[in-house]
Amino acid sequence: MKKFQFRLKKIEKLRQDKKKRRQRTFAEAERQEESERSKLARLNSEVAARRKQSRESKLRKIDPNRLKSESDYINQLDFLIDHQENRVTGAADNTSKCREKLKEASREVKKLERLEEIKRDQYIVETESLLQKENDEIASNIGRGSQPR
Cα(16)–Cα(133) distance, rounded to whole angstroms? Predict the structure, then answer.
């Protein structure tokens, strides 16, 4: 009797490789998003520290040049924060797209794995029915051989 062979094994291997590539891409996208979020957090903390420092310096002698430079710096940080928020949003969108691609690749692999299970079960059923048929023939031949003529 022939051994079970899943004819789509090569396709299943290709799909699994595709899934692994998608997993790596997704992990990289998550790392990139986390990096962008940490940059945003650093910028936010820098702005908060500068604003606090600016408030404290206003309690001392006021220097218009220093106030202008502090204000310009804080405005620049605000601009950088807006820009960084856009980068975080873009990274989050990329992560979502990669997650969806990974889910699709996982579904494709699961479909093929399920198909292989079904085919294996069919093979087992067919094999068992053939073996049962052979056993029945042997039993009937044995039964005929022991009957008186």
Answer: 39
For the chain, state the CA radius of gyration: 35
Distance of alpha carbon 98 from the chain centroid = 7
Contact 19, 103 (CB under 8 A): no
Spatial contact of 50 and 77, defined as CB atoms under 8 Å apart: yes
Q: Which of 26, 21, 5, 24 is nearest to 109 (CA)?
A: 21
Q: How far apart are CA 83 and CA 102, in angstroms?
A: 29
pLDDT tens-digit map of 10-42: 998 999 999 999 999 999 999 999 999 999 999
The tens digit of pLDDT for each residue in 91-103 reads 999 999 999 999 9
